[in-house]
Structure formats: structure tokens, C-alpha cells
Amino acid sequence: MGTISEKIFSRAAGTDAAANDFVSADVDYAMAHDGTSVLAVKSFREMGTEKVWDSEKIVIPFDHLIPASTDVAAGLQKDIREWVKEQKISHFYEGGEGICHQVLPEQGFALPGKLIVGADSHSCTYGAFGAFGTGVGATDMAEIFATGKLWFKVPETIKMTVDGTLNDGVYAKDLTLYLIGKTGIAGATYKAVEFYGDAIADLSVSGRMTLCNMAIEMGAKAGIVPPDEKTFAYLKNRSQADFEPVYADSDASYCRDVSYHADDIEPQIACPHEVDNVVPVGKAAGTHIDQAFLGTCTNGRLEDLEIAAGILKGKKVTVRTIAAPASRTILLEAVQSGIYETLVKAGVSFITPGCGPCLGAHQGIIAEGENCISTANRNFKGRMGKGGFIYLASPASVAAAALKGEIVDPREYL
Ligand SMILES: CC(C)[C@H](C(=O)O)[C@@H](O)C(=O)O
Ligand code: SF4
């Protein structure tokens, strides 16, 4: 009778949890990064709790402002490192290891059936592995640090099915943007979304991460792909704990049941300043581009860099182009496979694995009136620099635009 979310909350709360119930649930893993751990640790200290609930279950990756960009950031990071030592947090990842939402799966924390809470809105990424991953604010995280528990309203679930096969030149990012365009930025507010259909099953693990990563951009509390053989193959030799895959019952009750067909999907682009301002990329063709950015927790994986390298091989970008691999592991794989060399020769500048310019803090801020085409997940006004314009697209579309200096249908370059 249950959806995936109802079943995960039933286990985590030790009660029969149904949609709209309020439960107090045991969190399996808790994550805060260099940005949000600052306030979480401050609140934790103010609560007067001496010791975190479980130093093995807290994961702290430094990714947002690394290497430290200002003396203030350096000081805050120093303080968190000291707290990590004092609390004997076992899973601390220094800047350069990668973006939190990449590091957790790589290190085996994103496991089917788990309740994983992160002090970052894109913690829904872990749904790619059949987990209930969700983001909370830093003060809620302090509560988890202290008790291992947090209250939740069990979300209702939307069943979203995408049948058929994606067309050539259409990638997980295009599918994701298409679904957000159809649903709207608030169309799934506080719902969980379960993804089904051949087009979803055909996605690689990396593609499923792209999809679930952006569930929050339709307002969703979580986006979940039921685990399958691809999931288990990825998790092999990574997982640190036992896990129990969770699937919805055939008579589970959904608040909405929507279906789409992969054939209908062309390469997509989200135009400024809303993520659901989505059009087929051809409709924005000819828009001048000042900067191109390949990376982020949405599209900074090897597969993404490989797609870009396929388009840029033997050519030269005509606009400044930045690449930030989502993790050190991915950077190394890019080096070993020759993708790194292809991109560097094409004129791409690599920066430290991490968030980089995604949130406009450093390493690639755009000027007023400038247009950036990016593989990220948000194009909010001013996010990458005051007065700047952000277009969100697939790695193929970003690479093609970097060559042409304007937005172009990437299928012209395949
Ligand atoms: C800094 C952090 C709180 C923020 C988030 O929660 O998403 C960031 O990662 C982002 O993408 O805007
Ligand atoms: S890469 Fe961007 S979206 Fe992802 S966690 Fe970092 S700042 Fe947030």
C-alpha cells in the first residue's frame, strides 16, 4: 500500500507512516558543507549539547568556497575543521575532494532505502539511488547533529513516467529541464516524485543523479528512482553499511500520475531567470554568450565532461569556458581518459573540483549584462553575478555554445 517515501519513513520513524502524517524520524546520514556547517555548528553549540549523536553518521565535505576565497571564509573553515576534530567526525572531506552531492554517493553514503538529510537544497540527488534525500536548513541540521532525529511531514507522491527512448543529442539534462518546464517551479511543492518508465530506466546512474538533483527545482521534497541493477553495480564495493532497497507497492496511492514520451523531447534550455522558463534550445539560438560553465552537482561528472569533449575535440572555444569536475575522482578519470587534455587544448580552464562559480561566490563571476550558459541547476537573477543572465542546458549545448559564441542546437555539432 505504500509509496517509496511512506515505506522509508515507516522504517525511519518506527511507525506505520502515511502521506501527510507528522513523524519523528531517525536520520541515517546527515550532511553539512563548508557553507551550511557554519550556522549548524553555531546552533549546535548554542543548544549546549556536548557531543554529536553519532560521529560516524555525519558527513562534512568542503566544496562551496574552496580553496578559501576570502579571509572570512578561511577563518570560518578553520573553525569547522577544529569542530570536526573535537567531535571526532569520521567523514570529513577537505576542499578539492568534490561537491557534497557527488562525494556522498562516491563514498557509499547514498544507499537505497536510507533517509539522508543534508543542509543543502540539492540533497534530493541521493534519490537517484532509491534513498529519500532531502535538504534542510542549518538550524534543523543542528538538531540532527544533537539527536539524530528530525520531524517530517510524510510527503504525498507524484508518479512521473517517461516512456520511450531519448532522441540522439538529447540527454538526461534535457529530459530533466523538460519535466521541470511541464511541472513548473512550484508544481511539485512538498511532494516526493517517483520516476518510472523506459527512458528513466535507460538513464545511467549519472543521468539519474542529474534528474533527481533538480527535483527541488519543481519544488519537490525528494525525487526518487527505484534502484535496479545499475544502482547495485554502482554501489558495489562502495557502501559502508547494509541497505534494504525499497519499492512502491502496486496499489500505492499517488496524488498525481503523469506520463510523458521521450520522443517529444528535444534539447532544452532554461532561460533567465526561472528554471521552468524552458524552451527547445533552437528557440534561443543566436543568443550571445560571454561565458560557458561545465560542472556542478547537476552535470560535473565524467559522462558530462566526455560529452563536452566529444564536441570540442580538435576545436577551440570562442568564449571563456570554465570546467569544474564534480570530484577529485572525476578529475583523475578525466586526466586518465584523455578528456582533460582534449578540453584543455580546446581552451577550457579547469578549476578545483567543487561548486566554483555555480552560486556566484568565486572562480567565475559574470559581469552585469553578461550571459553565461551553464550546466548547473539554477538560473536565479544575480546568482552568478549581479545583473548577469544564466541559461541552463546540457553539457552538449554548453560545449556547442562555447564554440559558436552563441546559443545553438548542439545536434549541429554531433
Ligand atoms: C549554499 C547552499 C545553502 C545552497 C543550497 O542549499 O542549495 C547552494 O548549494 C545552492 O546551490 O544554492
Ligand atoms: S554545485 Fe551549485 S547547486 Fe550544487 S551544491 Fe554546489 S552551489 Fe549548490
TrEMBL record:
Residues 7-284, 285-405 form the Aconitase/3-isopropylmalate dehydratase large subunit alpha/beta/alpha domain. Pathway: Amino-acid biosynthesis; L-leucine biosynthesis; L-leucine from 3-methyl-2-oxobutanoate: step 2/4. Its EC number is 4.2.1.33. PROSITE patterns: ACONITASE_1. Binds 1 [4Fe-4S] cluster per subunit. Keywords: 4Fe-4S, Amino-acid biosynthesis, Branched-chain amino acid biosynthesis, Iron, Iron-sulfur, Leucine biosynthesis, Lyase, Metal-binding. The keyword 4Fe-4S applies. [4Fe-4S] cluster binds at residues 297, 355, 358. InterPro entries: Acnase/IPM_dHydase_lsu_aba_1/3, Acoase/IPM_deHydtase_lsu_aba, Aconitase_4Fe-4S_BS, Aconitase_4Fe-4S_dom, HAcnase/IPMdehydase_lsu_prok, Homoacnase/IPMdehydase_lsu, IPM_dehydratase_rel_enz, IPMI_cat. GO terms for molecular function: 3-isopropylmalate dehydratase activity. It catalyses: (2R,3S)-3-isopropylmalate = (2S)-2-isopropylmalate. Its cofactor is [4Fe-4S] cluster. Belongs to the aconitase/IPM isomerase family. LeuC type 2 subfamily. Catalyzes the isomerization between 2-isopropylmalate and 3-isopropylmalate, via the formation of 2-isopropylmaleate. Heterodimer of LeuC and LeuD. This is 3-isopropylmalate dehydratase large subunit.
